[in-house]
């Protein structure tokens, strides 16, 4: 599963009911639409043009690197001959990863005083992941969608914002710690990792106790307070800055809550890594857990740095397979393992996510008269289809289905319900 580890921007809505489509935002005093500078089309589409250029260059280079690509026949044989037991582990581990993140967000909402069902939390998680990994600018769309789903369930704007921000920070921290642990476990990368982290670790170890001294803490935090005052003085930034500053008052987790959040954030990543390890074992690749973990993080980094396609397609698969080869795997089985992993962690999860997205849609609000007309039309269509299905080639009359005689207009006894059941 492709997960963005950066905390995206949030739609800081007002603290009222769920915002719907409304009038456009007011233009600041002294500014007009005519005076707003508009960039040219090439500048606005520079990122898209760069992506297409890289993709075309990759396709153009295929004839020159054809001999270095994995053999499709060997890949197919490895995938079709995969161990079923390990494949079950792949599916269960990926389901566990999604469940851990859904429970993390649900726990944060409960800390803020809002309780939602586990089924609803799972649906929001899967639907948000599908939007994030399949649409252009997917992470931003996913954040807006998740924010609105939380608001629909009764969360205030501050609580919805706090849950998304806190969830991103906690999972990113867990992601970093697991990556550092994998580097420490690799004997070849351990020395470099320790040398690189020595200076920051020493700085933090000295800074944290020193901040307990009030005069020093005032000096260190003075630039942050100054930036906050500047933000409050800006008419367009001030509302957002106030809401962000109020987040700490919305979420006040206890020690038990912190322990649960840390465990869930860690399991979110560990289960995903376990899915990749199981896929590798299913095709007979014997790479150590730390090697699979490093291959996983290398693929995540490649998907974030080179987002040529939604979900990191192309970049994740190629970097993950290359990393497994670097740790001793053969190219074609490595490509088969990555294909099995992505089949479950991306395609299957995206499919479930779009089904969850459809299930969460409320649909249009129809009047009772419109529902009666729709019910009558649907009844006529079903009568026609059923009578046609019951006719034989020599029949001269239309036969009506007995099962359809019980269908009535909405609201009548024995008929359809007056409102959709959700």
From TrEMBL:
The keyword Cell membrane applies. Residues 18-27 have a biased composition (Pro residues). InterPro entries: L-PG_synthase/AglD. Keywords: Cell membrane, Membrane, Transmembrane, Transmembrane helix. It comes from the Bacteria. Its main location: membrane. It is a multi-pass membrane protein. The keyword Zinc does not apply. NCBIfam families: flippase-like domain. PANTHER family: UPF0104 MEMBRANE PROTEIN MJ1595. This is Flippase-like domain-containing protein.
């Amino acid at each position: 599963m492709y997960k963005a580890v950066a905390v995206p921007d949030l739609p800081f809505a007002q603290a009222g009911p769920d915002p719907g489509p409304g009038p456009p935002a007011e233009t600041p005093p002294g500014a007009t639409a005519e005076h707003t500078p508009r960039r040219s089309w090439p500048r606005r589409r520079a990122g898209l043009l760069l992506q297409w250029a890289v993709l075309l260059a990759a396709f153009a280079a295929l004839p020159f690197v054809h001999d270095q690509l994995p053999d499709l026949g060997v890949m197919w044989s490895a995938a079709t001959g995969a161990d079923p037991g390990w494949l079950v582990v792949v599916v269960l581990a990926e389901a566990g990863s999604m469940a851990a993140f859904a429970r993390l967000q649900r726990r944060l909402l409960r800390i803020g005083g809002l309780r939602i069902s586990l089924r609803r939390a799972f649906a929001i998680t899967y639907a948000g992941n599908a939007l994030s990994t399949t649409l252009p600018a997917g992470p931003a769309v996913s954040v807006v969608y998740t924010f609105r789903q939380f608001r629909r369930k009764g969360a205030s704007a501050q609580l919805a914002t706090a849950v998304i921000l806190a969830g991103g920070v906690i999972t990113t921290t867990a992601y970093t710690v697991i990556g550092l642990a994998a580097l420490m476990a690799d004997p070849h990368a351990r020395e470099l990792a320790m040398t690189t982290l020595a200076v920051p670790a020493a700085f933090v170890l000295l800074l944290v106790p020193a901040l307990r001294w009030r005069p020093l803490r005032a000096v260190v935090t003075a630039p942050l307070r100054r930036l906050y005052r500047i933000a409050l003085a800006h008419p367009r930034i001030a509302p957002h800055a106030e809401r962000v500053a109020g987040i700490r008052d919305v979420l006040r987790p206890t020690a038990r809550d912190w322990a649960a959040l840390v465990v869930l954030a860690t399991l979110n990543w560990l289960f995903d890594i376990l899915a990749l390890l199981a896929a590798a074992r299913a095709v007979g690749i014997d790479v150590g857990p730390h090697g699979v973990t490093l291959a996983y993080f290398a693929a995540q980094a490649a998907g974030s740095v080179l987002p040529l396609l939604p979900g990191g397609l192309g970049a994740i698969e190629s970097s993950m397979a290359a990393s497994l080869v670097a740790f001793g795997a053969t190219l074609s089985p490595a490509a088969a393992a990555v294909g099995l992993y992505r089949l479950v962690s991306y395609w299957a999860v995206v499919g479930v996510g779009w089904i969850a997205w459809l299930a969460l849609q409320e649909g249009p609000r129809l009047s009772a008269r419109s529902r009666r007309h729709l019910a009558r039309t649907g009844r006529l269509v079903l009568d026609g289809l059923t009578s046609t299905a019951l006719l034989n080639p020599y029949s001269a009359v239309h036969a009506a289905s007995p099962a359809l005689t019980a269908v009535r207009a909405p609201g009548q006894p024995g008929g359809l319900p007056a409102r959709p059941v959700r």
